[in-house]
Amino acid sequence: MKASASALSAAADVRRAKSRDAWTRRMPVLVALVLLAAWQVLAQQGMVSRIFLPAPSRIFTFLGQSLVKGDLLPAIGATLSRMIVGFVIGAIPALLLGWAMGRARGVRMFFDPVIAALHPVPKIAIFPLLMLVFGIGEGSKVVAIAISTFFPIVINTYTGTRQINPVYFEVARNYGADRWKTLRRVVFPGSLPTALAGIRIALNTSFVIAIAVELLASRTGLGVMIWFAWQTLRVEQLYGTLFVTAVIGIALNAATAAMSRWLAPWAQPPRERAGARL
Description:
The chain has helices at 2-44, 56-69, 72-103, 105-118, 127-134, 138-162, 166-174, 179-216, 222-232, 235-263, 270-277. It is mainly α. It has two domains: 1-39; 56-277, MetI-like fold. The longest helix has 43 residues, at 2-44.
């Protein structure tokens, strides 16, 4: 009887936890819907300026028309393609250098002051220099995105590697692990959660930089749509494009969070691990 009562109590706790989690996930959507409804009512009643704050219905009408005309999807594709190419070019050497800095004192002593000096430099500030070196085409934009991607990943990967408990390396040596096996069994999994945090930051930063370089020098992309909307005072297009960028940002964060849960489940909070098992 006691075991049965304990099982029923545990099942009830699980149901309550699922209900709380479901409500927590729905809350941001409900808040957004309430704010949009209030915004729509205020705009229709003329309580806010329709020039600077158009009704959400006008913004979504513009988005629908842009999809029908075929203007929006090519712009999204251009921005995301630049971002992905630049991100990959910047992320791969950043991961390799971060692991090398964490394990090799000579590499760390050489690159640490260089990274400390270059990281604070605004990447948009050096974009004109990149255009002089790589031209005004796609090369300079991709390099700017790659540079902005490089620093968060290399710093986080290096930090995660340095924070691994030395006991793990001693155990690996005692079991006769060579350098490659130590990297594969100790360094990679030990630094992965922090490296993934750097990847998450870098992915958002690369998206921001992609739009920024499009504002400065491009013929296609979401940044071009934002700039054109500002020049022509097409407020619905401006808000609509900003809404699309926000949705893409949310999707990028969700994708990186899912990747972190998949690649490093041991680094998740206990409650999230329990929820995943349920």
